[in-house]
Specification:
The protein has helices at about 25-35, 75-90, 100-105, and strands spanning about 5-10, 40-45, 55-60, 65-70, 110. By secondary structure, it is α+β, with helices and mostly antiparallel strands. The chain has a single domain (about 5-110), classed as Glutaredoxin, CATH 3.40.30.10. α1 packs across α2. The longest helix is centred in the middle third of the chain and has 17 residues, at about 75-90. The chain starts with 6 loop residues before the first strand and ends in a 10-residue tail after the last strand. About 35% of the residues are buried. The structure holds FE2/S2 (inorganic) cluster (FES). FE2/S2 (inorganic) cluster (FES) binds near residues 11, 13, 25, 47 and 49.
Length: about 120
């Protein structure tokens, strides 16, 4: 299976639970860009999943887009990179459930089909 270039969109606006100025989304973005993952890591202002910080979206041409929340830079930067690599190699971006890091099983919010998707005829 040929690898497809993956973009990891990271919400840098996600706040923590307190009212101070912590920006865990930005921390996650910085942790991901500090690693050499092969994926493009792109900051975004909001992914509209503000109640489940931190939030990322995995996207690639011809693949389903996955939105995942409940992540943090301390525990899940490595999981995000691991998942991005598996996602890039997986047909349609569909990584089997048991092959996903636990944080990407628990934090899944949605998946969106690629443009041009057509369902299998029934
Ligand atoms: S502020 Fe992060 S998803 Fe909205």
């Amino acid at each position: 299976m040929e690898y497809s270039p993956v973009t990891v969109f990271v919400c840098i606006s996600c706040r923590g639970t307190s009212d101070d100025f912590e920006r865990p989304g930005r921390d996650l973005f910085e942790a991901l860009t500090a690693e050499s993952s092969g994926a493009t890591v792109t900051p975004v202002e909001c992914l509209s999943v503000c109640k489940r910080p931190c939030t990322v979206a995995l996207a690639a041409a011809g693949k389903w887009t996955y939105v995942v929340g409940d992540l943090n830079h301390r525990d899940h930067a490595g999981d995000t990179i691991e998942m991005a690599l598996r996602y890039g190699k997986a047909a349609g971006g569909i990584v089997p459930w048991r092959e996903r890091p636990m944080s990407f099983r628990k934090g899944i919010i949605s998946r969106v089909p690629p443009l041009g998707f057509s369902p299998d005829p029934r």
